[in-house]
Amino acid sequence: MISGKFFAAGADRRIAITIAILVAVAIVVPILNLALPPDSALHVPSYMVALTGKYLCYALLALSLDLVWGYCGILSLGHGAFFALGGYAMGMYLMRQIGDRGVYGNPLLPDFMVFLNYKELPWFWHGFDQFWFAALMVMLVPGLLAFVFGWFAFRSRVTGVYLSIITQAMTYALLLAFFRNDMGLGGNNGLTDFKDIFGFSVQANTTRSALFAASALALALGVFVTWRIVGSKYGKLLMAVRDAESRTRFLGWRAENVKLFAFTLSAVMAGIAGALYVPQVGIINPGEFDPANSIEVVVWTAVGGRATIVGPIVGALLVNAGKSWFTGALPELWLFALGGLFVAVTLFLPKGIVGTWDQWRARSRHRAAPDEADGDAGSEEEVVVRVEPRPAAQLKPPHGGLAPQPAE
Amino acid sequence: MRGLTTTIRSLLAAGALSAGLMAAPAWSQEETIKVGVLHSLSGTMAISETTLKDTMLFLIEEQNKKGGVLGKKLEAVVVDPASDWPLFAEKARELISVNKASAVFGCWTSVSRKSVLPVFEELNNLLFYPVQYEGEESQRNVFYTGAAPNQQAIPAVDYLMNEEGVERWVLAGTDYVYPQTTNKILQAYLESKGVAKEDILVNYTPFGHSDWQTIVTDIKNFGSAGKKTAVVSTINGDANVPFYKELANQGIKAEDIPVVAFSVGEEELAGLDTAPLVGHLTAWNYFQSVDTPENAEFIAAWKGYTKNDKRVTNDPMEAHVIGFNMWVKAVEKAGTTDPDAVIDAIIGVSVPNLSGGYSTMMPNHHITKPVLIGEIQADGQMETVWQTSGLVVGDEWSDYLPDSKDLIADWRAPLSCGNFNVATGKCGGKGIN
Amino acid sequence: MGRSAALTVLAFLLTFLAAFISPASADEAALRATIAKFAQAKNFQATESVVKELAAAGDPAVEKPLAALAEGDLYVRKSDAAVFIGRESGQAVKLADPLTGAEAGEAAKSEVTKVRVNNSLRRAIREALGSLTLGAEDPAARLAAAQTMFRTPDPDAIEALDAAIAKEGVASVKTALEQARAAAALASDLPEADKLAAIQVVAARGDRDALSLLTGFQARAEGPQKEAAAAAISTINSSLAIWAAGQNVWYGISLGSVLLLAAIGLAITFGVMGVINMAHGEMVMLGAYTTYVVQNVIRTSAPNLFDWSLAIALPLAFLVAAAVGFAIERGIIRFLYGRPLETLLATWGVSLILQQAVRTVFGPTNREVGNPSWMSGAFELGQLSITWNRLWILCFALAVFFVLLFVMKKTPWGLQMRAVTANRRMASSMGIRTPWVDALTFALGSGIAGIAGVALSQIDNVSPNLGQGYIIDSFMVVVFGGVGNLWGTLVGAFSLGVLNKFLEPYAGAVLGKILVLVLIILFIQKRPRGLFALKGRAVEA
């Protein structure tokens, strides 16, 4: 077995480096974008800032899914819903910020309400002119939904496939609901035409850079929080529930509470990701609730490697960069590539990129170990190493629990 | 160490991809004028938008055969926003700032247009939007070559009222902004014409609705109140096929309850056995069946280009033809592709449309068009049964909505305003009421 | 102008000549002269006045040209302004004499112009034909005439109707004629007793048409007539309310049969095998496209087989979808047993690939799949209007279900399938070739999805997005019914269908669907394993 100490140190170091890189990116990229002239070789074009900022929000969303799926075995097919709810809360704030600069010049009502003949602001729009309220709602609405949903689902011991399907039903129901114009949230068009945030124009390069930095920092914070949770005693419980829910329960733990906490926290993270996403893309609409989007999030996480913290981030960045490239360069082939990626990853990289990388590193390390007489590698480890290279299909989770088996 | 290399390698990979992303379109040798094509080629909207992409490629090829524009060849840059609305904004940004497109032709749904609007405003570029829409918008950087509600919905209702003597109305639509706004306008219009509230039934269905049994029965029941009834359908794309199939099967004939549709064109009918639908109506500004030499020539060239004798043409295609020709003419007039110069030059530009007249770009960035009412024929074509005597100017701010009736748009200097209030004499909407 | 006047004169001369040459009556000459006027009608009003003139002649012979006009089959030859009934065949039009129907050669499409019709003209023609065809040979024509006359009551037609009623031998036509007479009586100034009797006759119909007629009558009637009408209206209304509930049940069952068809293949691949098969919808789509291809081939090579196209498409759709399913199982899914959540990802990828492949091959637009004649139209059962395609789909769904049930429960193959699902290792130890059984089971599920596609092509779009529209609903049905239980799928599909259709009139289509989803979520809390849960140790495994 890999030495616990080294593994822990490796993982910790990786987290530390990730956080450091994110913080550095948050500082350097805005400088490169704003301070350098556009013809400089190191200049980061605004287009890239906007694009990468969007990816970082996706990465945070993938990370939030990793917390529940990777560490707790809850495959949520409805995480897009929490993301979108957070986005809507932010969007409502941004709509109120428009004030009387809408096309109709109505100081109170957003444009879509004016031409749909609303006479007054619906009750749930009140308060969103204050940022603190909107910020609270960004966390509260997804959190509360997750809490209520999880409260029922986990207590009734809805697990595995059933849970996945009802989370999908949840996001699908929300999709249909938000499509309704009568909801007072802009129907299919959603919320758009934002003007400014905290009094700064959303189209300005400085604002965009600031939002980029905020996304990077939020992601760094997300990584830190996830890492601390996973490393704590609660994290051990989380993984215990994932690997053997009944046994954990028999030991006297309330599995449903463990899950509920992770699910709620994850929803809040997703909500924050959505809130950062909206001002950067300039629109939030019911399309974000599409079950297909939520499945895509699962794919980012799987591609990067679940239960690795860094993996989902890598996956989200890679897949989305690929999407941007393909839809521009080879539009007809985009779906073939994406579909092929799903199949290839599940078949050949069941642990994802980061997980496979770890596995490969561990193996090559151990192969090298007898020659180099590496102090950390003992003879007992080789036994395990020889067991590992079996066909992917029959892989049992190795001792470290890198490839969690869902409870189902 | 291991952690570090992993991270660095993955970041490098991401960086390489992003770099490739930026470098990819920069390979062209000869200097060309880039034209962006922003239509979904996958996802739910591919069904309608793919044809428009082909239309643009066709138009650009034809223009290049004529020697291009300003002595340079045109080059189409096609991207796929995949029916994903935020992706529309991203791709629009890519087309303008990375590919340096001089103008972009694209979008279909209102939400995709709304999604890209801020991008065009910020980066000051041109968008030609070819689809009929709900109005209530006029933007400096956008040219609306599709119909505004007064160029489609209101003439259609007039036709039904005057020619068919309809007294009772079902306004059936998909639940999104275009039907909602159009129905609001129509309701106000009908009431202004003395139709009682209980003679109007409004019904909304979700996107892609496929089980129409209940609604068709409702329509049938609503229509059996002893007054002549018609359905005004703003049902969107995909849901139309099951809707018409159900109509046909439940035996609702056009003579009894005619359905006039604003979103059903030749392309949608190609997926349908139209024999039971003969006599149902559509309202557009162009039909493939329009009998003019320009149209015959266009259809022949289009069929030749697509090498498919069965390819149909439709109204949004004509809108792109008009929009593209207007852009070409305006660029030649301005002598540059600079957006500001083109925006100034394009107003007042007239180009032949395919129905035998000239369409002109008006100061409100909408164009003049004839309105045609057609009856669906057994071969999937429309036959024009009524047509406006002249051209109709697109009215961006509807006169039938209380909040927009005082607004006008005029992008000529010195007014240069998309929502000028004639009552208060100020730019910027209705103001405080 | 001068030219067309000359043509008119010519046309008149020709008809005049014809009248002399053929031993026809003077009437016929007059009719021909009137028909010739169609050539001069420049707009719909003018055409309509010609139609009225023809109808006023009261000669049943005008049925032919009028019916042809309504169908859009009346043509004017450009060279001599003669009017013909035409049938398009390719680039040419086969011409026939408008009155006798005798063949009159061919003309290229460019040599003739169609006499244009619109809805109000078609209506005028229908009304004109109504009174003319009262004495037709064909009972169906007489019935249609009576029904038209019921809808457009004309007091002047009472005498003609009385005569027709006296002559009528077919009971159903006679009833229709009496109703038409009653409708005409209500519009006339007959004495009160007649009108009261007429109200009873009309009320006996008990349908919407009767209701609308009586409502209109009530508005202008007074005294006992008004009361009688009001009473009749309230009786009709209350009986219609019951029928409406029945209609909802039928719609619910019909929607349920669609759900059942869509879900039943998934009940095998997901329910029995535990593969979260997101590519299920695409199997349905493949079946629909197979139907399209079959119909296309039939249209070009054997048009008379068109009514059989679905029967031919069924086995082919099964084979195509089953083959693809087999390939997916062998290529991908067999490596993923025991990891159900990962089958979700892989099959989602497969579904994207299949969608895009179909889009590349067939294009992104809808494809036309026609309804064979036996699946078109509707029939009335009391006040229920039942469409044939829905009825056939219901029968078909049930047939598929019971065949599948038989296969699963009564055949050795089904036994092996169930054994492998229950305990793979033990089944293997018993000598069952488990990989083979897995592949065949998956192929079976996919094949059934394929034949579902054949049926769904009759009511929905055939486009690359077809499958996407059904996948979520299918999962809901299977999960609601209980995974691994075919009966659960059946009950689940029908109860969701009926529930949906009962919510729809009150909540609207959108809210109704949302409510159903919320109810499913709540239901799963109560019964985490669906309506018909499997019991025993295997469940937790």
Structural class assignment of chain C = alpha+beta
How far apart, in Å, are the first and last alpha carbons of chain C? 89 Å
How much is the radius of gyration of chain B in Å? 23 Å
N-to-C series of helices and strands of chain C: HHHHEEEEEHHHHHHHHHHEEHHHHHH
The CATH first-level class of the largest domain in chain B comes to Alpha Beta
Membrane topology (chain A): Multi-pass membrane protein
Biased composition (Acidic residues) (chain A): 371-382
Transmembrane segments (chain A): 15-36, 42-61, 68-90, 131-154, 161-179, 210-230, 258-278, 298-321, 333-354
InterPro entries (chain A): ABC_transp_permease, ABC_transptr_urea_perm_UrtC, LivM-like
Describe this structure in words.
Chain A: Residues 371-382 have a biased composition (Acidic residues). Chain A: GO terms for molecular function: branched-chain amino acid transmembrane transporter activity. Chain A: It is a multi-pass membrane protein. Chain A: It comes from Kumtagia ephedrae. Chain A: This is Urea ABC transporter permease subunit UrtC. The complex is a heterotrimer of chains A (408), B (433) and C (541). Chain A has helices spanning 4-34, 46-69, 79-98, 111-115, 131-155, 160-179, 205-231, 233-243, 245-250, 255-281, 291-304, 310-329, 334-348, 352-372, 379-387; strands at 191-192, 196-197, 200-201, 283-284. Chain A has 408 residues and is mainly α. Chain A has one domain (4-394): ABC transporter involved in vitamin B12 uptake, BtuC (Orthogonal Bundle). In chain A, β2 (196-197) and β3 (200-201) form a beta hairpin. Chain A is globular. In chain A, 56% of the residues are buried. Residues 1-7 and 372-408 of chain A have low confidence and may be disordered. Chain B starts with a helix and ends in a 6-residue tail after the last strand. In chain B, the strands form five sheets. A seven-stranded mixed sheet of chain B has the order 7-6-8-9-10-14-15, sandwiched between helices. In chain B, strands 2-1-3-4-5 form a five-stranded parallel sheet, with helices on both faces. In chain B, 38% of the residues lie in helices and 19% in strands. Chain B contains twelve helices and 19 strands. With 433 residues, chain B is α/β, with parallel strands linked by helices. Residues 1-28 of chain B have low confidence and may be disordered. Chain B is globular and about 65 Å long. Chain C starts with a helix and ends in a 15-residue tail after the last helix. Chain C is α+β, with helices and mostly antiparallel strands. Chain C has three domains: 2-122, no CATH class; 136-221, no CATH class; 246-535, ABC transporter involved in vitamin B12 uptake, BtuC (Orthogonal Bundle). Chain C has helices spanning 2-21, 26-36, 44-57, 63-71, 119-132, 139-151, 158-167, 171-187, 192-205, 208-220, 223-272, 280-301, 309-331, 340-362, 388-410, 412-422, 424-429, 434-456, 468-481, 486-526, and strands at 74-77, 83-89, 92-96, 103-108, 112-114, 378-381, 384-387. Chains in contact: A-B, A-C, B-C.
